[in-house]
Design goal:
The chain contains twelve helices and twelve strands. With 356 residues, it is an alpha/beta fold. It is globular, with a radius of gyration of 21 Å.
Length: 356
């Protein structure tokens, strides 16, 4: 991914260094200035403007999922049942189970989560979705299906955890409103973060609670407060400065241009592989690609061959909840690669697959 400009980066850390020193812990919910800037950013980019008091700062998306799960477990007095996408985000599933929750897989299709399969499950307490760019398959949930999901959540009293993954990086099609922007019943907890936009080492993300007060929101707030502050105050000051100064908007413009170029590079290289049957997927948005093929090489065999060459990719099978439910393939992140590096990696990948 294109690095943020050194000028903006240094200015942010100067702002953090200039902040008054004080001997005390930060607010566990986050600095008011950062929460205000996150709310303003969502108003500009995601179609809803939450009250900053409803924004809670967390140390990454996994921390956010863990806090929500812990809050539900305390509220319900039992292990909360959470429906998750299959395939989906393995780290997110681990965050649920490590906080005492139970996961149930729901298949994903071309339009995102299979709502009929979701409705056929035993009652669940929450459903976790990546509707804007499903991870890893890349599907986008249409507005009509989003409304159907929200109608179902309202009828059943189910909490929707919207992981707004890769919403900043849409390469084709019109932007789709966030679930939180369509929510009228207080069913959606909106999750987002700065790992893809700035730097994953910052470990800074957020939860937006629904505008309507209920026991579930109160339980999440109690869980966050009980854990104490988790993002260092200087980091929060620096991130707030990047948002307030317009550095994020400038940076995203550069990253989108580079990502669009990488996308075309992946399509061209995989498409030029001849009769091998390779297909590149998940490229309408985001910073990763899924490459699939008909065989005989397995995904894990290709992962091992690439690792021996110093390249890390992941087998698509590792993202599934149900064994054997996915096509043979690998997931390749290209956000941190230069054009030259990506060309080399794609060449190695095609050769590793062809080796059988």
């Amino acid at each position: 991914m294109t690095a943020i400009s050194q000028r903006d980066w240094r200015a942010a850390w100067r702002a953090a260094a200039d902040a008054p020193l004080r001997n005390g812990l930060s607010d566990p919910l986050g600095l008011p200035e950062l929460r205000t800037q996150i709310a303003a950013q969502l108003g500009l980019t995601r179609g809803f403007s939450p009250d900053p008091e409803r924004v809670v700062v967390t140390a990454g998306t996994s921390d956010a999922i863990s806090v929500v799960t812990e809050g539900l477990r305390t509220l319900l007095g039992r292990s909360p049942r959470v429906a998750v996408e299959d395939p989906g985000y393995p780290t997110g599933r681990r965050a649920v189970t490590s906080a005492g929750g139970t996961v149930l897989g729901v298949p994903v299709g071309a339009d995102g989560l299979d709502l009929d399969a979701l409705a056929a499950l035993p009652p669940v307490d929450a459903v976790m979705v990546t509707p804007t760019h499903q991870y890893p398959l890349g599907s986008v949930m249409p507005v009509a299906r989003r409304r159907s999901l929200l109608d179902w959540a309202t009828r059943t009293g189910t909490l929707v955890l919207e992981d707004d993954y890769d919403s900043e990086f849409r390469h084709r099609g019109s932007p789709v409103p966030a679930l939180a922007a369509l929510d009228r019943a207080g069913s959606v907890l909106h999750l987002g973060g700065f790992s893809k936009t700035f730097d994953p080492r910052l470990r800074c993300s957020w939860i937006v609670l629904p505008a309507a007060e209920d026991d579930r929101s109160a339980a999440v707030l109690a869980a966050r407060r009980a854990r104490g502050p988790v993002v260092a105050e200087p980091v929060q000051v620096a991130v707030a400065h990047l948002l307030r100064s317009g550095a994020l908007r400038r940076h995203l413009g550069r990253v989108r241009r580079d990502a669009a170029h990488r996308r075309e590079q992946v399509l061209a290289r995989v498409g030029a592989s001849g009769g091998a049957g390779l297909e590149a997927r998940a490229l309408d948005g985001g910073l990763h690609a899924v490459v699939t093929w008909p065989g005989p090489a397995t995904g894990h065999a290709v992962v091992d061959r690439m690792a021996a060459l110093g390249v890390l990719v992941a087998a698509l099978d590792d993202y599934g909840v149900r064994p054997g439910s996915l096509p043979t393939g690998v997931v390749l992140g290209y956000g941190a690669l230069t054009s030259i590096e990506l060309d080399r990696v794609l060449g190695l990948l095609v050769s590793a697959i062809a080796a059988g």
